[in-house]
Amino acid sequence: MELKHHTLTVNGIQMHVAEQGSGPLLLLCHGWPELWYSWRHQIPVLAQAGYRVVAPDLRGFGATEAPADANAYSILHMVGDMVALVAALGEKHAVIVGHDWGAPIAWTTAMMRPDMFPAVVAMSVPHRPRSNDAPLKLLRQAGLQNFYWIYFQTPGVAEAEFERDVPTTMRKLLYGISGNAPVDRENPMIVPEGTGFLDRLAVPERLPQWLRDADIDTFAREYQRTGFRGGLNLYRNLDRNWELTAPWHDAQVHQPALFIAGTRDPVIAGQRGTVAIDQMSRAVPNVKKVMIEGAGHWIQQERAAEVNAALLQFLREAGRAS
């Protein structure tokens, strides 16, 4: 079974996918700032276990088309891409797996199309039910006007920072919020006025075992070619997503679900993250939670063996339940 790359017409755009194996379909949705390559340790293992594994470059990333209009990156577009991808692959059902931004895409896809997605796995970002007010407004009301979501809002600002030296950007991002980063660093999710997102991230003297120079080069080459605008447009639709998903307010995800995260992931650190994980069962009553001690944000890259074992066990159990 060889890994093959091809391009499909999906929901009006050209989407690049990496594919391996045959059997029940698994869609693997990466996060920001990532690519299909983030699943390099999962694809062959899942394919060997008897699955058809498809890892796309999401809309705006890598070799997939990046529409110019920022409004073309709403959660409805992203869910629509996953629904259309299943059809373009000639399938009727898929288990959807997502990490980072891929996690809310997976959660929302499962919520909106339970007929097509019988099970869901999310990593690093817990399911958060739709709030009573827009997310950026809530952040400002909570005194978090320097939260990175807000820093990402103005077109061109974050792009200029990240594109100044892309290899260093990728090195800082992949190390700086991993489980290997120093524990005494300031919260990297806060961007004080006059600074950039990268300023608080540690620079590794030596790369951890899970991250090679060749991996950084793979990410850097693509982002040097494409820039960062496509992925950043996901953040620029946060409040719009809240408006668009009003019909699903208080909707639940009833399918078998798995949540995997690292205990040292800054994305879920603090009270907000703890509450979201603790209360997830209210909106996802059939969720199983796996917390990996000492792991950071890039969970499937940092702890590939543990993530693969959890995935395979969940897929076996979900298959028996269906």
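[next item in queue]
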Amino acid sequence: MPEIIANGIRHAYRLLGGDGNAPPVVLIAGMGGAASFWQPQLDAFAARRRVLVYDQRGTGGSAREPVRDIEQLADDLLALLDGLGIARADLVGHSTGGAIAQVIAARHPERVRAAVLYASVHRADAYRRRVWGLRKAILQGLGPEIYAQTTSLFFYPPEYVAGHDQALAAVERRAAEGEIPSPQIMASRIDAILRFDIAAELPGVRAPTLVCCAEDDMLTPAYFSREIAAAIPGARLEVWPRGGHAYSRSHPREFDGLVLDFLGGQG
């Protein structure tokens, strides 16, 4: 992937697709932070829009730097957009990526035409601290390979895991061999999302917003999405009955259709 210095560090990114009649769509990955999360979406999105994907601070091909807070990750993305000459964009954020999108939509409204907050959170609570405390302990105690294997169990419904065992094993190997940051950097990312709380600022978001999640999401339960949608004026809420935390990967056609149609309606 090409590289650019943004907010003082090296970021790896890809800019693809060719429709210049609308702002680009930025696909923002979750806790793993790597652009590869969005691989199932790239063909469909790039066929209709210009698309930006990137590896966040500490992940993939970007600089292996710890994360101070979610606001720093938002500053990274704004600097990346500046470096690429993108004044305004549609933001599609998964999980932690949705938290990044919330910061930009709330504090830099001129940079956001529309937002999709997918399986995301706006605050932490006792459930999230339990889940991420456990995942952090797995990574630090058992290492990246076991962490990657448990990620599949957290991300997908049981029937999806049963039906895609070999494909998931390949994804887990790639993650363990390089995409997952060191335990120290990943711990900084986990700590950042557990400190994050933007609930009081959501009523000020003015960009058209789609909030979506699956009812069976173990990592970001649907009550977070319902709270986010209720707080943002005019937000649309879509809750799928099943699909887990990574609905865009377990049901890519349905996800792509919903998000692209929503963004296409914001011209």
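[queue empty]
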